[in-house]
Q: What sequence folds into this?
């Protein structure tokens, strides 16, 4: 690696000597070519400046300011253009790299946010699934309990209807017995009235009044039993 800068230094000296010869054309292409070679070798401006200073020393141009030193300075600046261009490209590359890093950081943050949102969505979905499963079980239990209550209500309604029907039958039998007893009493009184019709008119009058009261009481009892039967009628 050391031989290459040494050869470049020799070529630089030769090109600069030729450039500084009286009457030589002010062609800077050789300087530009040397600058590109320096870039290939990975040299920086300071190293190229050292090569330039050694060439000036070899050419005995290190003292004073004259036209030759000014021309030599122009030659150096031309050679250094390629190195400076790499610096600009490097700066641009660094800018681009920084931009890419910033974009990558933003994308990373967005990805992290999306990942967190996705995780929250997964947790929420699992909670909803668990709630749905629990709700399904609760619904099943509620349905089963509702069916049991409906069956219990049907059984209770049946027992109430049976009890009402039994009560109606009981009241009906009591009514029949009451009417039968009342009619038998009326029949007995009518027979007594028939036998005593010509014997005691006053007694007959009292018996007729008593028989009327018995008939009225019987009618009242019939109406009472009828009302009770109506209230016992199933809905």
A:
């Amino acid at each position: 690696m050391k031989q290459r800068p040494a050869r470049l230094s020799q070529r630089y000296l030769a090109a600069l000597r030729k450039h500084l010869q009286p009457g030589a054309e002010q062609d800077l292409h050789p300087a530009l070519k040397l600058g590109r070679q320096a870039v290939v070798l990975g040299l920086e401006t300071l190293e190229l400046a050292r090569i330039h200073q050694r060439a000036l020393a070899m050419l005995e141009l290190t003292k004073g300011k004259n036209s030759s030193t000014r021309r030599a300075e122009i030659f150096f600046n031309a050679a250094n253009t390629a190195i400076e261009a790499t610096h600009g490209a490097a700066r641009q590359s660094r800018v681009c790299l920084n931009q890419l890093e910033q974009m990558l950081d933003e994308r990373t943050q967005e990805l992290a946010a999306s990942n967190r949102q996705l995780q929250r969505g997964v947790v929420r979905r699992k909670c909803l699934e668990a709630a749905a499963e629990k709700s399904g079980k609760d619904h099943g239990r509620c349905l089963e309990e509702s069916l049991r209550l409906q069956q219990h209500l049907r059984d209770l309604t049946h027992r109430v209807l049976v009890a009402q029907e039994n009560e109606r039958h009981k009241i009906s039998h009591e009514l029949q017995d009451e009417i039968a007893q009342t009619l038998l009493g009326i029949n007995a009184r009518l027979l007594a009235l028939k036998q005593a019709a010509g014997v005691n008119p006053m007694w007959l009058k009292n018996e007729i009044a008593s028989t009327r009261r018995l008939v009225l009481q019987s009618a009242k009892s019939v109406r009472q039993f009828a009302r009770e039967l109506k209230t016992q009628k199933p809905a």
